[in-house]
Protein 1
Amino acid sequence: MLLNLEAVTKNFGGFQLHPLTLSIERGEFFSLLGPSGCGKTTVLRLIGGFESPTSGRIILNGQDITSLPPHRRNIHTVFQRYALFPHLTVFENIAFPLRLKKMAASEICSRVTECLKLVEIEDLKDRRTHQISGGQAQRTALARALVAKPDLLLLDEPLSALDPELRMKMREELKTICKKVGITFLLVTHDQEEALQLSDRIAVFKAGQCLQVGTPKAIYEDPVDTFVARFIGSVNEIAGELQGEPSPETGELALASNAGNFKIKKNGHPLPRQVSVILRPEKMRLLRSKSTTQENLMEGEIQDQTYLGSRTEYSVKIGNSTFKVFEQELERLKKRRLNTGDRVFLAWRSDDAIVLPQQTV
Ligand code: ATP
């Protein structure tokens, strides 16, 4: 294990980081995800040495670094605003950490050239930072952070200042670079899509507490609670009450709700009677007429539709609730066109429902 946080806490008075125990493996792309103010940056700053924990220990490569200052930890940070030196060229910005280490000029030249190649900005090496674009500044900052071959690279929302197209491109490159150089990347983001796309594992935070750590798939498909489920993607929710015991043949259980009576499957966790059933939009099928399959069916009416190019998003009103469902363009073109007010059915399989204890907040 590269990094271990052992019951790390931070008390800022108004904000408390609850005891955080976390292990990150060498070469892993790990993300801290959560809404604004949940404490992600605080965790990053504690690891970087810019804040001291109130209690707990931080172990890097088997060494207790809890009380080491930032420059004595083999950790580098790419800040949101890059923090490049305006009076230096791109080359010299990248060379800076090596010059601090008093490395030989020839070694500096070969390491910086290697990093310039890695982030594909060799031809910009003699420019000053006001002569490069935001995306190029981002690459320079990344190269400067990688040049000293840190054990761990901390990334504090590094893509947030880029326009959407460039952000998508840099996302792909970040992941490729992480795997190429074999350095562990720890990313702070509030963007769930970014975390899903980039990470080997994600830790989801809420109000100073780490709620779940897992692979993107585990967090998306098996969230520990409704907060994580809602934060990590679109959800349709049905609040209901479990009835009786699971069927011995199918393992299915009856659910009574305002939206109707359904069959669901428990995911193995103990559940109270009052549950929230979470259905991802892509797990629901939109039907123009009633089906006779064994799936769960809900009848409603089209409230709204948004054309998104490759797919159309429909809002379907069922009772007092609105459900979101997508239809791929190829599918939609084969079928009858839908208008606001049309009666439709939403079908879903008992296996595809995520069943969680009901939460009031
Ligand atoms: P964002 O996505 O908005 O950056 P975040 O999840 O990274 O949010 P943090 O920056 O870790 O959140 O802040 C968590 C809480 O700790 C906030 O309420 C913040 O005001 C508080 N906080 C952070 N640093 C300090 C500090 N040095 N002194 C006092 N309070 C602080």
Protein 2
Amino acid sequence: MKAELLIKNIGMLATATGSAAKAGNEQGEITILKDAWVTVNDGNIAAVGTGEVAVEADKVIDAKGQLVTAGLVDAHTHLVFGGWRADELALKLHGVPYLDILAQGGGILSTVRSTRAASEDELCEKTAAVLDEMLSLGTTTCEAKSGYGLNMETELKQLNVVKRLNESQPVELVSTFMAAHAVPQEYKENREEYIRQIIEEMIPYVAEHKLAKYCDIFCETGVFTPEESRKILLAARQYGLEPKIHADEIDPIGGSQLAGEISAVSAEHLIVCPPEGIESMAKGGTIACLLPATSFYLGATFAPAKDMIAAGVPVAVASDFNPGSTPNLNLQLAMNIACFKYRLTPEQVLTAATLNAAAAIGCADKVGTIEVGKQADLLIWNAPSLNYIFYRYGNNLVDTVIKKGEVVKSK
Ligand code: IZC
Ligand code: ZN
């Protein structure tokens, strides 16, 4: 059969395999093919081989001996927001802690004011530009959290932006409802009422209108307690929104233990995750979604990624793109930091930013690996090997981006 697309002359094809997150030794056991080729039909991978190509194709791309991987999957972003927080830079550089800025009405609450003030069209336009940049950098699938509205109207505005963009540009988006990102200033003295609104009004509406797949919460000192987190996440699950949780970012108050207890799909950050948290996540089948660029930007320590892998917890790596704790959308940079600061191997990090990331957002059956039947989301790198993309850093090493079999970016 004639293929629609053939990518030939691939110097190294590097991919994780399977449709479920990989943990332990398996996280680093990837497939490497030399002198490889891939064919595509109907947007899906039709065949993968090495050596002589026997298949004819309508369109042929010469990979010129370079590296090909699956498209990157960014499993944790706060994608849609108004404004930026560059005015907080001086405070940060003077060592004012992240949670102090938030307690003073800045941080997340400053972005809430800007997001409430922005129109849906403005947010769409701004976010489309962000996604275009992400795509150039190799991100072909991306999670997007709400959480800068903190009221029904603006949370829905953010979720609508994701819905619209999912239909109008190539990066596939997975939506997470996160009204439990902070307690809004108007409910500072009445947090129970805000929690009631999330549980009784927002979650049912978001679920009914299929505006999100997951529900996330910021379980942190001064934000939401583990008890509140349990209550909100279990309520969300009843409506079909599976739980995710921002845990142990700044203080280890029990978020990772809770994640495992309720078998959350993923726990995010985990910078100060204690051994009990790792054990709980291993038992509960929770994926650790680690955000190394955030540790870098906050001047914090780094999550115990190796301990997690050793304990059988699958590790994903994501950008955490957001206007405060890491205004960086480059997942390649987060992968570099993961390699150097977590001391993970390039193979473990590749799995973390493709297959395990896809599993963390429920799409490992169709993206995250280069295998027959999976979606043809592929990157041709300006690099001869997997090691090279970790050895070099700081510039964009992605040459060509293919989404569902179509070339969507090419240098
Ligand atoms: O806007 O600061 N940690 N949420 C939890 C964030 C960082 C995003 C922000
Ligand atoms: Zn986050």
